[in-house]
Write a structure and sequence with these properties.
The complex is a heterodimer. By secondary structure, chain A is of the alpha+beta class. Helices cover 25% and strands 25% of the residues of chain A. In chain B, 38% of the residues lie in helices and 11% in strands. Chain B has seven helices and five strands. The chains are: A alpha+beta, B alpha+beta.
């Protein structure tokens, strides 16, 4: 039976039956029904008649010179249509990158990490493409591998990137240091003299993977004008476009991009993966080319969360006030820059957490190594720091004999506090309140597994493995709180664009919202419709597919989309409203004096006065006309951090969450069961409470994952990845996951649209240290690394 | 080779199937039914879960040839499947259940578990959803009043990276409650 597929057409996510719901309501997703019926077209579902399948050959070694590449056998394989290497790239631009263009599209002369793309193949069947790739002969001459700070900064270290010319290069002490951000405020050394108690700690944070379920994939369709149309799962269409077009040797207007269904992102789709390769193969063969990574390749195809080494010194007075913090955060950026410089800025500026400390000495660096490249992941630099500073806070509380929550509350920042960067927090910062709320939640009952019939092993550590019936199981409770910036910081021009049209369809006024926002599952499409309904008083809203025919929406990351693109939609709606009222005045202004004198609103499909008097139906006002505006919108500008002192108003907004973890540990086998993970978070304003809950619970579980199971293992000698599969890289299942009660606080940030506060990332921060604190409380062990493994709990590591 | 099978009640044939292709590949790429998802393709994530002659399987682990002559129900056929189960006389025997044929519907009707996933906010990116729905529907068919521990056990083979599973728990509880009200 011939396949009649979607032929590259994106799934329409115009609304179905759901026509109600303004902001503040738990409106259901417009794409929900398509997603539960299997009709929603994800990027890996796309299909085109005559399409070919692309596949990449990846390096089998971490660091080597490429002596030769022989593609003749691969090209000779029946069904193979093209094999491309570096030499086949059509333009002078052959590298890309988010900030620093240091990443080769295909390896040039050298490979710098295990799994780096070396060649690309197009064939008529995915298996043919894989077999052809396997027939490409690459001769490597291996080079010494840089795997950690010691090997990276040795005086005679091999350079990961020779002849660096990027803008960070002049400011670092070694070319294998990608970026360094110190933050110095007050006099930490002098303040240390005032401390009654000083605690120090060294912490290790493992390499986490975003592990979104929808693999990297897309379909590139060559167009008659010599351009290409790429249907792609990404977080930022225009950022991709900016990086793709120069490598193809095409002007940006010949590269059309349409968002295909995205199966999760979490930062892992900020960088390019197969975008350029698919386009190159399509342009070379003149046929549509689809590339779908398998899970193994996905682990090589995107950047990971930076593993980190963190060294902290905290001091406090006997009465429980922090005197100073000194810390050093070393992030392993891997072979290419990706988002590492910005991650460094975050780790440094948020490095002491949501606490008031006048005297700080902070340093964060990112290294170039031959480990897998690391970049954006939910929480973005703030996660690693939170793991360490929260452990330190517990340690200090312990030394002082204070309750860990009360100790945090004593030092909690609040509105008006000054960050280490000198920036004053000018919106609510309810850190103490969130801790109070999370502590006040009722605790789950003890020994829940016990019943009259015995133990329900499913609720015990080890679960269905039936490893214990409760003997040797101890409970612990732990707390943590964190601070995350919202939006892009350090002076980035963080704008978004929205096009809104209002017209009459079938006698009803309809709003059409068109943005380039990547819907990656977070629910932006729901919220945009809610905003349009609220601002324009219509029921019917159509959300256009995201593409590059409209201006950039910026990235779906940094908890920024509802703030920035939501703000753009709101402002575009306001302009539409003004134009609609102008039309109304022109058509009906003579009928009623209120058209000229009153404050007019659009509500329930009508123009009404602020006193509630109906002046006209929107359908009558707009009959025969439509109003469309496209508008960019920016939040308040930020500033770069000073390179020496780190001072500067670098962030636009902050997001806060607190967690309480309850765990049970089988101390004999070292197995952990997280019994409950309660969260309290301030979201400013919950535009869609159901979606906000989903973000908080999802983020919480990603933090749980890194606490007890998730880690990409890189061989310290060869820098090869050991566990690129869901068999060996474990993410929490529903059995590993506890109930997650959530207390949502809504303290408006008056600088933000509707007072909202970006919500997606903060819960990922504090969940990890809360679980660690609970395991420490249960076992009495120090536990300075994450994830915690059984051998750390049984003393056999 | 040619593979003939019944999918969601309709006889289907796929030609030129390479011996190494999975049932998942045949469904998605040859039959145009991309509902079963390709998240790990090694039987770890459950995104490609379908029924094969009434049994839950990861379709990525089933060789296409193994599906010859057999019956497959995917998420695309779940609504019909659930409707048939709902209207069937109580106490359907195993043989009779295996003889069941879904009736192709208009595509707009939802199985109770599908509606519950939408209503409870259990869908975010939605990539895991088809597999979870097939597994959850199977759970509710076998155990109409599952405890939370039952739900977690039944769905432990289906990974979700977005929701934190809480809304999925809510959805299955909601579907079970609605199912109980109907009886």
């Amino acid at each position: 039976m011939p396949r009649t597929g979607p032929a590259g057409v994106p799934t329409r996510i115009t609304q179905g039956a759901q026509t109600a719901g303004g902001i503040g309501e738990s409106t259901l997703r417009p794409d929900g029904i398509l997603k539960v019926t299997g009709e929603f077209a994800y990027s890996s579902d796309l299909w085109h008649e005559d399409m070919l399948w692309g596949h990449l050959l990846r390096s089998t070694v971490a660091h080597a010179e490429i002596v030769s590449i022989d593609v003749s056998e691969a090209l000779a394989l029946p069904g193979v249509h093209a094999v491309l290497t570096y030499d086949d790239l059509p333009a002078d631009v052959r590298t890309y990158g988010l900030e620093i263009q240091d990443t080769p599209v295909l390896a040039h002369g050298k490979v710098r990490h295990h799994g780096e793309p070396v060649a690309a193949v197009a064939a008529d069947h995915p298996e043919t493409a894989r077999r052809a790739a396997a027939k490409i002969r690459v001769e490597y001459r291996e080079l010494p591998v840089i795997t950690d700070e010691f090997s990276a900064t040795a005086p005679d270290a091999v350079l990961v990137h020779e002849g660096r010319t990027d803008h960070h290069a002049p400011y670092v002490s070694h070319p294998n240091i990608l970026h360094r951000q110190p933050i110095v405020r007050g006099d930490a050394a002098a303040a240390a003299e005032r401390a009654d108690v000083i605690v120090r700690g060294e912490y290790t944070f493992g390499m986490q993977d975003q592990a979104f379920l929808g693999p990297e994939s897309g379909l590139a369709v060559p167009e008659e004008d010599g351009g290409v149309h790429l249907y792609i799962a990404t977080q930022w269409l225009h950022s991709d476009l900016r990086q793709i077009a120069p490598v193809l040797g095409l002007p940006e207007d010949k590269v059309r991009m349409t968002l295909a269904g995205v199966g999760g992102a979490f930062g892992g789709r900020e960088d390019l993966s197969m975008q350029i390769h698919a386009c190159l193969l399509a342009l070379r063969t003149g046929r549509p080319v689809k590339i779908v990574y398998d899970r193994f390749e996905s682990f090589f195809g995107h950047v990971h969360r930076h593993p980190a080494k963190l060294t902290y010194e905290h001091g406090a007075t006997r009465d429980g006030l922090l005197t100073h913090v000194k810390c050093r955060i070393v992030l392993d950026g891997g072979a290419y820059a990706s988002a590492s410089p910005a991650v460094v800025g975050n780790a440094a500026s948020l490095g002491i957490g949501p606490y008031d400390v006048d005297d700080v000495d902070i340093e964060a660096v990112a290294l170039y190594t031959n480990n897998p490249p690391c970049g954006a992941m939910r929480g973005f630099g703030a996660v690693q720091a939170c793991f360490a500073y929260e452990a330190q806070m517990d340690k200090l509380a312990g030394e002082l004999g204070l309750d860990p929550v009360e100790f945090r509350q004593l030092n909690a920042m609040e509105q008006g506090s000054t960050l280490p960067t000198g920036q004053v927090v000018d919106s609510p910062a309810p850190v103490a309140e969130l801790l109070r709320r999370v502590k006040a939640m009722p605790l789950p009952p003890e020994r829940q597994w016990e019943s009259s019939e015995g133990a329900d092993v499913r609720q015990l550590p080890g679960g269905l493995s039936n490893t214990t019936h409760g003997e040797g199981v101890v409970r612990g409770i732990g707390y943590a709180v964190g601070i995350k910036n919202v939006g892009f910081s350090e002076g980035f021009d963080d704008y978004s664009t929205a096009k809104v049209r209002m017209e009459v369809v079938g006698g009803e006024p309809v709003a059409v919202v068109h943005t380039a926002m990547a819907e990656v599952g977070q629910g932006g499409v729901t919220v945009h419709a809610q905003i349009a309904r609220t601002e324009l008083g219509v029921e019917q809203v159509t959300i256009q597919p995201a593409d590059t025919r409209v201006g950039s929406a910026g990235s779906t990351s940094a908890s920024r989309q509802t703030y920035v693109t939501g703000g753009a939609v709101r402002n575009a709606c306001a302009l539409v409203r003004e134009r609609v009222l102008e039309i109304g005045r022109r058509k009906f202004g003579t009928h009623h004096p209120a058209w000229a004198t009153a404050e007019l609103l659009l509500e329930r499909g009508k123009v009404v006065t602020d006193g509630g008097e109906v002046l006209a139906d929107l359908a009558d006002v707009l009959e025969g006309e439509s109003v469309e505006v496209e508008r960019e919108w920016r939040h308040r500008p930020t500033q770069p951090f000073d390179r020496r002192t780190g001072q500067g108003n670098g962030h636009v907004q902050y997001s806060f969450a607190a967690h309480r973890a309850v765990v049970e540990v089988d101390t004999e086998l070292g197995l952990v069961k997280v019994v409950e993970l309660a969260c309290a978070q301030d979201v400013g304003k919950a535009l869609n409470p159901l979606s906000v809950l989903g973000q908080i619970q999802g983020g919480t579980v990603q933090g749980l994952g890194v606490a007890v199971m998730e880690e990409i293992l890189v061989d310290p000698v060869t820098a090869k990845v050991r566990n690129p599969s869901f068999t060996d890289y474990l993410i929490p299942t529903i059995l590993d996951t506890p109930t997650i009660p959530v207390d949502i606080l809504e303290l408006a940030d008056h600088h933000a649209p509707y007072g909202l506060r970006g919500a997606g990332e903060a819960p990922t921060l504090s969940s990890t240290p809360a679980v660690l604190a609970a395991i420490r409380a249960a076992t009495g062990l120090e536990l300075n690394r994450t994830p915690v493994r059984p051998e750390h709990l049984t003393g056999t590591a | 080779m040619r593979v003939s099978l019944t999918v969601n009640g309709r006889p289907q044939q796929a030609d030129d199937v390479w011996e190494g292709e999975s049932l998942l590949y045949v469904l998605r790429e040859r039959l145009g039914l991309p509902g079963a998802k390709n998240a790990c393709e090694q039987g770890e994530c459950g995104s490609c879960t379908v029924r094969l002659d009434g049994e839950l399987v990861c379709s990525c682990l089933v060789a296409a040839g193994q599906a010859e002559g057999r019956e497959v129900v995917t998420v695309e056929g779940l609504a019909d499947h659930a409707e048939r189960r709902r209207t069937a006389a109580p106490g359907v025997g195993l043989d009779e259940a295996r003889d069941w044929r879904p009736v192709p519907g208009d595509g707009t009707r939802l199985a109770p578990v599908q509606q519950a996933f939408v209503d409870a906010g259990a869908v975010q990116c939605g990539f895991c959803t088809p597999g979870l729905l097939v597994a959850a529907d199977d759970l509710l068919a076998q155990n109409p009043e599952p405890t939370d521990a039952d739900i977690r056990e039944a769905l432990s083979g289906n990974l979700c990276r977005c929701t934190g599973y809480e809304k999925i728990m809510d959805a299955v509880r909601l579907a079970a409650a609605r199912q109980a009200e109907e009886v």
